[in-house]
Amino acid sequence: MKFAIFGDIHGNLEGLQAVLRHAQDQGCGNYVCLGDIVGYGANPVECLETVRAMGCPVVRGNHDEGAANESMLEDLNPLAQCALLWTREQLTREQRQWLADLKLVRQVRDFTIVHATLDSPGAWAYVTNRFDAMASFSYQFTQLCFYGHTHAPRIFEKEDAVRGARSLETPLQKGVKYFVNVGSVGQPRDGDWRASYAIYDADKQHVAIHRIDYDIETAQRKIIDAGLPPLLAERLALGR
Ligand code: ZN
Predict the structure, then answer these.
(1) If you measure from the C-alpha of residue 64 to the centroid of ligand 1, how many angstroms do you get, rounded to a whole number?
(2) What's the pTM?
(3) Of 70, 75, 104, 214, which sits most exposed with the smallest number of CB within 10 A?
(4) Ligand 1 centre and the CA of 16: distance in Å?
(5) Cα 175 to averaged position of ligand 1 atoms, centre (Å)
(6) What digits encode the pLDDT tens for the residues 208-232?
(7) Per-residue model confidence as pLDDT tens digits over 76-112
(8) Where do the structural domains in the chain lie, given as residue ranges?
(9) Helix (H) or strand (E) segment spanning residue 108
(10) Ligand 1 centroid, distance to 184 Cα (angstroms)
(11) To the nearest whole number, what is the mean pLDDT of the chain?
């Protein structure tokens, strides 16, 4: 049984479609979404409806929350604020309610999913080092947990101590816990512009991050055409 685990789509339909195609080609029969479906990109409605139609487990991200509510924009940078105000106008009340109703943490089969952190999932802190990861591990009751939010793929392992794994592809070993950042479909920030997601092979007990080319020019043009800040289009190519 293979799971495709993806998140931080941010309204980038070209990225989402490329990831879903790739996952299907890889034989993934199960899909899991880590949130931030909307915000930044020009296709929030299409991305939301694509994910919703899949009927897969989804957790809420901070941009989903920002698009669903009237408040909460103070915490975001000006670019994100601008994009979220635009995004709110695109979504129907019913679509915003669907985002608002998403849970923050879920267990799917034998693993856990969360957008940001397990220690305080609604506070939207970033797990960028092993100390942050350590805090999440204290609340991780499955061997494996997937998260996003930083837009940079990373695997943390906890055996006796917590360490960052050297590779973005790893067999799961007994007695070791894994906290896996799957990276971002729609706005990677690790210097690589390609869409990022993870495949978990439950039979082989193996996790791997995949990077996928997509039609970035179309995604960029749509952002410009929508009247969103051009910087949001430019940063897609930089992977920042
Ligand atoms: Zn995000």
Answers:
(1) 9
(2) 0.97
(3) 70
(4) 14
(5) 31
(6) 999 999 999 999 999 999 999 999 9
(7) 888 888 999 999 999 999 999 999 999 999 999 999 9
(8) 2-238
(9) strand 105-108
(10) 7
(11) 96
pLDDT for the residue numbered 72: 63
Q: Which of 36, 30, 166, 8 is nearest to 111 (CA)?
A: 30
Residue 75 has pLDDT above 80, yes or no: no
Distance, CA 169 to ligand 1 centroid (Å)?
22
**Among the four given CATH numbers 3.40.50.620, 1.20.1250.20, 3.60.21.10, 3.20.20.140, the one describing domain 2-238:** 3.60.21.10
201 alpha carbon – ligand 1 mean position (Å): 25
Ligand 1 centre to CA of 199 (Å) is 19
How big is the chain by its Cα radius of gyration, in Å? 17
State the DSSP H helix or E strand holding residue 224, giving kind and residue range, or none if neither.
Answer: helix 216-225
* Contacts with 202 (C-beta within 8 Å, 6 or more apart), sequence order: 1, 2, 3, 109, 110
Measured in Å, residue 7 CA sits from the centre of ligand 1 at 8
Per-residue pLDDT tens digits for 180-195: 999 999 999 999 999 9
Query: From ligand 1's centre to the CA of 179, what distance in Å?
Result: 17
Exposed / middle / buried, residue 135 (Cβ in 10 Å: 0-12, 13-18, 19+)? middle
User: Is residue 74 pLDDT above 80, yes or no?
Assistant: no
Residues within 5 Å of ion ligand 1 by Cβ? 8, 36
